[in-house]
UniProtKB/TrEMBL annotation:
Listed Basic and acidic residues bias regions: 454-463
Native source species: Kocuria varians
Name this protein carries in UniProt: O-succinylbenzoic acid--CoA ligase
Every AMP-binding enzyme C-terminal domain range: 326-403
Keywords assigned by UniProt, alphabetized: Ligase
Amino acid sequence: MTSPFSPEPDDAALPGTALPAPALGALPRDVVVLDGPLPGDPLELLPRLRTALSRPGPAVVVATSGSTGRPKKTVLTTEALEASGRATERATSGPGQWLLCLPAHYVAGVQVLARSVLAGTHPVVMSTGHFTPAAFADVAEGMDAPVRYVSVVPTQLQRILDPAEGAPDFRAVAALARFDAVLVGGSALSPALAARAAEAGVRVVRTYGMSETCGGCVYDGVALDTVAVRLLPDDAAPAAARAALTVAEGPGAFSEGRIWLGGDVVAAGYLDDPAQTAAHFRVLDGVRWYRTDDLGARGEGGALSVLGRTDDVVNTGGVKVSAGLVASVLLEHPALRQALVVAVPHPEWGQSVAAVVVPRPGTERSTTLERELSAAVRDRLGAAAVPKLWHHAQQLPLLATGKPDRSAAAALFTGTADASATTGTPGTTGTPLTPPARPGLPDTSDGSETLDTQDARRAGPRG
């Protein structure tokens, strides 16, 4: 396989045929359009959702998170939402009551409401203000249904289990442990945080998906029963690409490449956007497929590991470095709570690898820590992948979805960040003395990415 970071192909290079883009004028009058934060109580959406989900066809229009550009309006049908909701029930403990602590205008939030409608249960809603463990406990303790679910992002989970200051709120931890499943998505869940959740008896389900698949459709690396997952290198020949989408295993299957997701959960396309719809939504042998912007690999037992986004790459001195893989290695260090790796401009090499790290409470910033982190990355991924710039922060900058804000993180190193929104101490600003090594990176993977969720109201959403 040549470089997996290939540019967008033209229509003829993609397998199957393009879905036609849904047009605004053709949508039913009662379709629920979510194009911004809700002005009132999210529960006011329930009657509209019940009406929209009572008939076939387009039911909800939800914006992607927009973290890589202009948000796209994704059209979700009743059939797709029902397929997603029923598959979630089969993968967990059946129909149950949901707690909403995410913005309802993004897919993870509206899915809490849609799943409640499909299950015939009444959701419980947290305040849309700042997420705190105490507020979570207050609401969660009032739930009395026999089966209970909640969707959170890693930042919310961390505030409950591993707060930046002080001891965990044990009332919130106990409330979280009473849920039958805690769906976690939106960004990678660190091994340390996953271990803390397991120790606390929290039944975490790592989810992977996006607006275009009605949210999470891969749970703990395994596709839901109505979902197909295929890996397809961008440089695959047309015949091989077609074969890869029609077989799960065998000679036509790939073990690494761009992730394609297929099945009834796939959206109808992007509203009034024929070009992007054709580039990402395909039909092959009657199956709808979504061509993601993520790279994946098959692990033990065929489980999916998400390696990072196709555009989340640092091209440093001619070597392509996966920022997601570097962050995964950093997060294995016990002194770190969070890590985000981005590209920043470099006059000689084009780009440098830069890391924003959030140390655990009581961890002093030191050159020793940075040397340990650098050594870990060098040993696993090679010298080119070692961050040359560091920024120590109290928390990562976040989008409104709760996902890391990569643009804001990069601005911390280029001097364009809004000082009022920046936390932490400046990172090192020096440059390495030797150019990056040129050997290719090994095929190593860890971590996963997922569902569009949130906990803080800042700028924009993931495309």
